[in-house]
Design a protein that fits this description.
By secondary structure, the protein is of the alpha+beta class. The protein folds into two domains: 167 residues, Jelly Rolls (Sandwich); 104 residues, Homeodomain-like (Arc Repressor Mutant, subunit A). The strands form three sheets. The chain has a five-stranded antiparallel beta sheet with strand order 2-9-4-7-11, covered by helices on one side. It starts with 12 loop residues before the first strand and ends with a helix.
Length: 281
């Protein structure tokens, strides 16, 4: 879903010349079902869901009036709500929903010579990602008793927002690229068609057809090659035992890993490691 779907009025722009100011922030869990607050806030809101679903409706200006956009933000999904825009709850948020939020303001107007970036309105597929880990670290720092917390919290928020804006600008948009990026991010576990369907929201049969036509190999072949290449890098650059390297690329059976690696490289893991060392001299 592109940001144009949501309308420019709902998009937040950040700048290298204006540090965001963090307000209320935290990770919350819903002990009982509830509806999102009905408000026109004088601050921006970032919402990231760890479990459950946050339901919120945003009412944006449109020709001849307003237009409502309904969001159901689920596990691994992120949403930004812009200040000055009416948002409210029409659907009950279920008990057990757990989410991160931060309220923040931005200085405006922005200088003419600044660098700017648009925050994506909505992002999915962030479970287990670097973005999720950065959100966790920010929440932990916000709650910390560090004497530097009040000095650094806004700088850390600027870093987090900048990462989200610029990282998403680099994200692949075509389906084959999205599949490849997903598989590359999951070399530490065995291939799973069901997991790919769940993450990418397409049937495995359709993704397999599109991917093979574009890339010349099946999704499983591509994933297996990436796992073996990662194993080769670990064999060359670390002293980890072969069993630990096997586990790092998603193999519970070291002997099966060794057979797969031999099929891929023509050498056993031990032979490959010795050969790599000899090539340096």
């Amino acid at each position: 879903m592109s940001d144009s779907t949501f309308g420019e009025a709902g998009i937040i722009t950040i700048s290298n010349a204006a540090v965001p100011v963090a307000g209320s922030c935290g990770i919350l869990a819903a002990a009982e079902p509830f509806y999102h607050a009905d408000r026109v806030a004088d601050f921006n809101v970032m919402i990231y869901v760890f479990d459950g679903t946050i339901h919120v409706t945003e009412e944006l200006p449109a020709p001849g009036g307003t237009q409502q956009f309904d969001y159901s933000v689920r596990r691994g999904e992120l949403l930004f709500l812009k200040s000055g825009i009416h948002h409210f709850g029409k659907t009950e948020i279920p008990r057990g929903t757990r989410w991160f939020y931060v309220h923040f303001t931005l200085d405006e107007p922005l200088p003419e010579n600044e660098l700017t970036a648009k925050l994506p309105k909505y992002i999915s597929g962030l479970s287990g990602s670097e973005a999720e880990e950065r959100i966790r670290r920010f929440a932990e720092f916000y709650d910390s008793r560090s004497p530097l917390r009040d000095w650094n919290i806004n700088l850390r928020l600027a870093e987090l927002l900048g990462y989200i804006a610029l990282d998403q600008a680099r994200q692949p948009t075509s389906l084959p690229d999205r599949i490849a990026a997903y598989l590359a991010a999951n070399t530490s576990q065995p291939f799973s068609a069901k997991a790919a369907e769940r993450e990418l929201c397409f049937s495995y049969k359709y993704m397999e057809s599109v991917f093979k036509k574009s890339c010349g190999e099946t999704m499983q072949q591509f994933h297996s090659r990436l796992r073996m290449e990662q194993a080769g890098r670990l064999l060359r650059s670390t002293m980890l035992p072969v069993g630990e390297i096997a586990a790092a690329v998603g193999f519970s059976d070291m002997m099966y890993f060794s057979r797969c690696f031999h099929r891929f490289s023509g050498q056993s893991p031990t032979e490959f490691r010795r050969g790599a060392a000899r090539e340096l001299f």
